[in-house]
Amino acid sequence: MRLFVVVIAAYLVVALALPLYAMLSKSMLDPDGLFIGLANYVAYFRTPALVYSIKNSLFVGVLTTLITVTIAFLLAYALTRSRMPAKPAFKTIAMIPILVPSLLPGIALIYLFGRQGLINGMLFGHDIYGPIGIIIAEVFFTLPHALIIITTALSIADARLYEAAISLRASRTRIFFTVTIPGVRYGLISAAFVVFTLAVTDFGAPKVIGGDFNVLATDIYKQVIGQQNFSMGAVVSVVLLIPAGLAFLVDRIVQKKQVALLSTRAVALVPSRHRRFDNLMLGYAIIVSVFIVGMISVCQYAALVKFYPYDLSLGFTNYQFDLMDGGGWDSYFNSIEMATYTAVFGTVLVFCGAYLVEKAQGLGVVRGAFQFLAMLPMAVPGLVLGLAYIFFFNSPTNPLNFLYHTMAILVISTITHFYTVSHLTATTALKQMDAQFESVAASLKQPFYRTFFRVTIPVCTPAILDISIYLFVNAMTTVSAVVFLYSPHTTLASVAVLNMDDAGDIAPAAAMGMMIFYTAAGVKILHYLLSRGIEAKTQAWRSAVPT
Amino acid sequence: MTETFLRIQGLTKLFGSFAALSDISLTVFEGEFVCFLGPSGCGKTTLLRAIAGLDIQTQGTIEQDGKDISVLPPAQRDFGIVFQSYALFPNLTVEKNIAYGLESRRHQRVEIRKRVQELLTLVDLADQVEKYPAQLSGGQQQRVALARALATSPGLLLLDEPLSALDAKVRAHLRLEIKELQRRLKVTTIMVTHDQEEALTMADRIVVMNQGVIEQVGTPEEIYAQPATEFVAEFIGTMNLVPVQALPGSEYSGLGARFQVNHNELPAGSHAALAIRPEDVQIDQAGKAAGENTIQAKVDDLEYLGAFVRVTLVASGDQTRLQVDVSTNRFSELSLSAGSEVSIVLPPERILIYPRPD
Question: Which of A169, A261, A263 shows the shortest C-beta gap to B75?
């Protein structure tokens, strides 16, 4: 058992710690590989154009955070505290942005508000290329993440607190500010930091719709892909690590406090009917849903229109990917292959890792280091990870050099990129299991792996399924890490969207983006059906009455 | 004390087709301490929540202080409530928690401070004002919840299992404290509990409930000595319950013998339960006791409980098991041990009879 712990810890060292170290040291080398200390950083901060990007990134991050958290809070409130109809439908619609690459909202905005956009008059002469476009796209992209966190925070409320306040004759407003808001404050803080990090480190939206408005994420890409200036790319990456790392730390601290608020004696709150309020919330949920479905529909429209805006007839000409740059249909199938490998190997690795860390005895230092490494990917933006992989795996002295430009490196980087959330899902599921199972098994003279297969895995099946779907969907949509790592043989659908957009083939880019959406959505639906079947089989013990 | 404060009539609460309360009628007098006692799921909390207006009843009326409050929302009723979980606002200090209800009623700030001070002294927490609920012990949290409920001087105090989350020692202490406080403030109080010791020690009157109906209303003495139904007899304290059959006259057959009781309304041949408390059974060495209601038995097990010994006997007639409490002194006189043969007497005036369906 200890051997396994060491093996999985070693994976994280190779796939995460060493590349990051390689990147840090690269940022202190000159183009010829000589150590020059912080000279690159000094040069960076003396370049006004680059420093300006920091300001731009912060601007986009702060505004996106304010807007997204507000929208998400109101929607979460509608979902948890009203009795409006069709809640599951609204919840599902709000999750759509998770299923598309962050490039897609940018493309939708071009069609809506671009120079020949469908409704560009609504911007009153403002340019969609720039901060306005980036922020709208980021709001779309970050909304589901904020919504999940805030909905969870709102739904753990203790009904008794509300009853106590009512009994003490507090008004609705007073109850809102003294009970509701304090109850979700950690959720709000956590959501704000998650949104901020996503918005600051995202590269898709500013790439597509940023125009001349440079941000940190696009700078890394331009330094590396455009100017082949790897050292400066590394410097920008380190700069980008700071806000992301900070946000991550705050989030961890706050999450712990949120959990502490959970009282075992809490009684679930069931909202009562208030016709006016319910209608108001319903209207709001419809507006948000129209925004989300609208963006996706515009992309679908863009993909089907033959030659916008000159020939508005519909057809599948834009789906002839093989005629365009970006890798053609192969890249779509590469993506499916990559996502499948990521889901299969990633789930095994993550779940075993979490199991071993939870259950193994001794090896305190290794397990501590493992926990730290498992949480670290959350703080590392995809672009930074991708760049770090170039430095580490492309080094001729690295015995793992053979991995470079293979499918394997794409899979490894994607698993690592999305390790943290998967690990937390697995850990949460494992923590719900009695810690004495292993002792019981030992007393019955059974080896640990028997309990693992007979009890642990069946009990945790829903979580295992969640992890694999999470990995699959993210592998389909991710651009940031893999954009530095793909080769001509391993082009990916999401990267194809980027490259086609770059080459001016926006309609085919939209078409490929929609292919990703349909694939991810299909997998999600499959997951839903599958988990219902599996739950009936493996989770029967959860219901008090035999079924 | 004889002024009616709360009048509940024909109260029914349905959850779907399940009747949590069926046709409850009850009167509570001013200044009285009433306990709703019963096993979990008996409807006692539902009744309390109906009185508070937190769950409005399906049918029936509630009058408080001469006013019909049946359909009023909680905010328009006059009560303070303490929940089992206390439901203290975790983000507010002790002081702010207690002042919460006063601020809702727009009292002057000076007035509020004064009232909070008064209450803190009342519950003996004057030195904890600035603390947050999580920094207090369970007993302290309980007292803050009590102070918060009493802050606005409500006419009715509702306590929903207020002591069940505490450990035994704190519980015993707070039991006295709450009772003392209630007597001093003369506030009409209703407490829900499943702990009969709590109900017996604290209440002026106990309402024993089971499956949505009231089984008995009475003082602790009445409930203990004269349980109205077999359910109450079994639920309160320890009771020997023996299946018997009525004979003509005031006699019953059971335990392989015949028993004389003081009064009997059951027709001959009907089935019933004979009930007698362990401390009411007289025990003697074999053959020493004689006369009516005497049977022979054998000691099966002895349980030493300090002031007395609980003796488990097996009746020689039909092997029914009976429990008898013997004071420690009497026990050493008798020098009993497992296997000893004894005679026991079931005094007719101590026997209770409950009819059973045939």
Answer: A169
